[in-house]
Amino acid sequence: YNEENRISRTLLDINRYLSKKKYSYEILVVNDGSKDRTVEVVKKLEDKIKNLKLISNNENYGKGYVVKKSMLEAKGDYRLFMDADNSTSIDCLESFFTYFREGFDIVIGSIAVKGSQIIEKSGLHRRILGNLSKYLIRIIAIS
């Protein structure tokens, strides 16, 4: 949401990484009713980035809605969700394939996992809300 200043760098980074791979891929951007120029920035990159597709909502529905929408819209056998801020680099993707080969249907990357090499830089309030949401997800997943 309102990622006009970051989305270009993130998409170019993702494309640079994926274009070197032998597998096919698509890059979906779901704009969730941004009030800035996010849509225009993404549209300008469509000629430069192979298989870039923009899905744009006129209003803001929230992260859960757009994650679901993008996962249902995606066509690949493997689907990755990541935020526009590129806080976790796309090169972490390769480590997920090990788990898929072991038979896991879903792999969730987290900085909270033992051995994580990503340092969280967000403010205290975001970390608290993030931790609360993790517990809520666990409660819902267990039920």
Provide the descriptors you would attach to this structure in a database record:
two-stranded parallel sheet; 143 residues; mainly alpha; 8% strand
Task: Give a structural overview.
The structure is a single chain. This protein is mainly α and 143 residues long. It is built from 5 helices and 2 strands. Strands 1-2 form a two-stranded parallel ribbon. Helix 1 runs parallel beside helix 2 (38-45). The mean pLDDT is 88.
Which geometry do the CA atoms define?
globular
* Sequence of secondary-structure elements: HEHEHHH
In which range does the helix fraction lie?
40-55%
The beta-strand count equals 2
Q: Radius of gyration from the CA trace?
A: 16 Å
Q: Separation of termini?
A: 30 Å
Number of helices: 5
Short description:
The chain has 143 residues and is mainly alpha-helical.
Describe how the helices and strands are arranged:
Elements: H1 7-18, E1 27-32, H2 38-45, E2 52-57, H3 63-73, H4 93-101, H5 124-142
Parallel strand pairs: 1-2
Helix pairs in contact: 1-2
